[in-house]
Amino acid sequence: MPVPSWETELKEVAPNVFAYIQGGGPGIDNASVSNAGLIIGDDYSMVIDALTAPVLTKAFIAAMKKVNPKPFRHLVNTHHHYDHTRGNCFFLPIEIVAHEKCREAVIEAGMPYPTRPDWQEGVEGLKLTPPTTTFTDKMTYRYGDIEVQLLYQGPAHTQGDILVYLPRYKVLFAGDVAFHYVAPHFWQGHGSGLLRVLDWIADLDVETIVPGHGPLGAKKEIAEMREYVEALRKEAKKRFDAGMNAVEASVDINMGRFDEWPNATERVIGNVMRFYLEFQGKPLAPISQDEIRRARETYLGRKVLRPKP
Question: Is residue 90, in this structure, part of any structural domain at all?
Fold first, then answer.
């Protein structure tokens, strides 16, 4: 299946429900270029995720204000990664809602500035702003006639992912449990847990899926992502059983058509490391930032030298 391109837009996917999609496609680095959402009620509105840099968050806010006259009441963080939480401070004062493990991880990670040169404007205004309201399994809000279910299905992309489900309109804001036509990563999560949650989505009464990265989609895109994760698990297990270490296995693996997805090459090693821990009986063992950095540098250095099949 060819990899599409998509533009940045705030798109109404159901009455008073909007997806904010950031542009991307073949050859475009999608790292930290995440999507978000807006739900408008009778008196207030809910925002889903806050983006990673002031210029991006402010563009998102400006787009929302064009269609939304209601004040922001809740901001939902689907998980702790910077591209979904660093912009939290620009929505204050607001109630920020997330899974309890997301709050813990936001505080632990701190507030480093974004490094991309084109994202430097306004970084002096950033401040650490963790979620203020947390839950463990499920929380429900009602925005007018829109029931908004916040659901935790277990570790997947990270330890604290939540999904935002609107049953009336069969819409799901999946956060980074869903990557559409972009290589996923889950080195801070649980590989088989991610597969289980993707299966849960496949059984859900849903028609429109807003991914954390990539264009709007549906169950077809979830099936594509699941195929990627399952194929990588099988390839990693073959090499684990053969005695290869994670770097050797990652260099050796060829993901075929999935190698055309943005960010595919550099994300294999972290995902393989996560699967290796699972094969060793330690599926939730942490991988440190230094460990992932060293492994990625070694892997990329060897990958460049390896002749293409």
Answer: yes
Q: Which of 118, 283, 78 is nearest to 187 (CA)?
A: 283
* Contact by Cβ (8 Å): 114, 12: no
My answer on whether 158 and 78 are in the same domain is yes
Q: Do residues 211 and 258 share a domain?
A: no
Compute the distance between CA of residue 18 and CA of residue 198 in angstroms, rounded to an integer.
23
Beta-strand pair 171-179/208-213 = parallel
The answer to whether the predicted template modeling score (pTM) of the entire model surpasses 0.70 is yes
Rg over CA atoms, the chain? 19
Q: Express each pLDDT in 130-147 by its tens digit.
A: 999 999 999 999 999 999
Which residues in 75-88 are b (16+ Cβ under 10 Å) and which e? bbbbbbbbbbbbbb
**Does residue 183 lie in a domain region?**
yes
Task: Check residue 293 and give its pLDDT.
Answer: 95
Q: What CATH number does the domain containing 156 carry? A: 3.60.15.10
Bridge-based pairing of strands 72-76 and 95-99 is parallel
In a domain, 2, yes or no: no
Pair 38, 17: CB distance under 8 Å: yes
Residue (of 63, 74, 55, 192) closest to 124 by Cα position: 55
Residue range(s) defining the domain that contains residue 236: 230-305
Q: Which of 191, 220, 249 is the C-terminal boundary of a domain?
A: 220
Q: Are 49 and 77 in contact (CB under 8 A)?
A: yes
